[in-house]
């Protein structure tokens, strides 16, 4: 077990970590137990009753949070010609094609948070699959990051678009804002995310879909939400 600091222990003593809470109460506890000297990110951890090893039980998508994420996001766009110009005008931080792919491969360069590509550039981007994939940076049509409408894609990302996807344990880990947002804004962001996840339930999923839901700030203890009260 990792050693916990004084702040974490003091925060954890404020509530019963095994208790299931309704959303509003849980969000208040998350904010109350966020004690770091920096503005902590608040994340939702959602374990689903699916088996992500099967293609028909994958859960993946993206949503623009009502209040954004509170984070400044750097976007790399793979595009050429007029589409490259469109990306630059729309606020992309980096735009390129083979040159950007080469920079990632040769320099191990990752000064970006999201990768967007036009469909015709996926041949170039596809060669980076083993590098971008493990970092969760590979563009995907389901998350809106493979598109010809770069202006909309960039506007959504800069406004606070987040991607949700299963990890190998069938858990979704997604940021829903900063502790400075306060309980109400965080709750609105959380509800928007959960609505999208519930809507994305695979037709082949059997039994309980929402197995467990936990909210936590970067340095704070996890607060369990009653999944029966969601969706």
TrEMBL record:
Q: Which Gene3D superfamilies match?
A: 3.30.190.20, 3.40.50.790
Q: Name one GO cellular component term.
A: large ribosomal subunit
An example Gene Ontology biological process:
regulation of translation
Q: Which UniProt keywords apply?
A: Repressor, Ribonucleoprotein, Ribosomal protein, RNA-binding, rRNA-binding, Translation regulation, tRNA-binding
Q: GO MF annotations for this entry?
A: rRNA binding; structural constituent of ribosome; tRNA binding
* Coiled-coil region(s): none
Family annotation (Pfam families): Ribosomal_L1 (PF00687)
The leader peptide range reads none
**Which SUPFAM superfamilies does the UniProt entry name for this protein?**
Ribosomal protein L1 (SSF56808)
Q: How does it assemble?
A: Part of the 50S ribosomal subunit.
Q: What does this protein do?
A: Protein L1 is also a translational repressor protein, it controls the translation of the L11 operon by binding to its mRNA.
| PANTHER family associated with the record | 54S RIBOSOMAL PROTEIN L1, MITOCHONDRIAL, LARGE RIBOSOMAL SUBUNIT PROTEIN UL1M
Entries under HAMAP family matching the protein: Ribosomal_uL1_B
Family under the similarity heading: Belongs to the universal ribosomal protein uL1 family.
Protein known as? Large ribosomal subunit protein uL1
Annotated source species: Emergencia timonensis
């Amino acid at each position: 077990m990792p050693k916990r600091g004084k702040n974490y222990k003091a925060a954890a003593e404020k509530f019963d970590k095994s208790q299931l809470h309704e959303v509003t109460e849980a969000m208040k506890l998350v904010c109350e137990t966020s004690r770091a000297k920096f503005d902590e990110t608040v994340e939702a951890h959602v374990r689903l009753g699916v088996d992500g090893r099967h293609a028909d039980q994958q859960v993946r998508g993206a949503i623009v949070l009502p209040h954004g994420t509170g984070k400044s996001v750097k976007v790399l766009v793979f595009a050429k010609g007029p589409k490259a110009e469109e990306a630059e005008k729309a606020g992309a931080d980096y735009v390129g094609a083979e040159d950007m792919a080469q920079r990632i491969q040769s320099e191990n360069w990752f000064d970006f948070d999201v990768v967007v590509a036009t469909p015709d550039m996926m041949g170039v981007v596809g060669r980076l699959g083993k590098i971008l994939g493990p970092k969760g940076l590979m563009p995907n049509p389901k998350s809106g990051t493979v598109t010809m409408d770069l202006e909309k894609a960039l506007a959504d990302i800069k406004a606070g678009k987040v991607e949700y996807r299963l990890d190998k344990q069938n858990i979704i880990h997604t940021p829903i804002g900063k502790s400075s947002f306060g309980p109400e804004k965080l709750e609105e962001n959380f509800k928007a995310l959960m609505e999208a996840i519930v809507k994305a339930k695979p037709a082949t999923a059997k039994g309980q879909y929402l197995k467990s839901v936990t909210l936590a700030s970067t340095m704070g203890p996890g607060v369990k939400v009653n999944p029966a009260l969601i969706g």
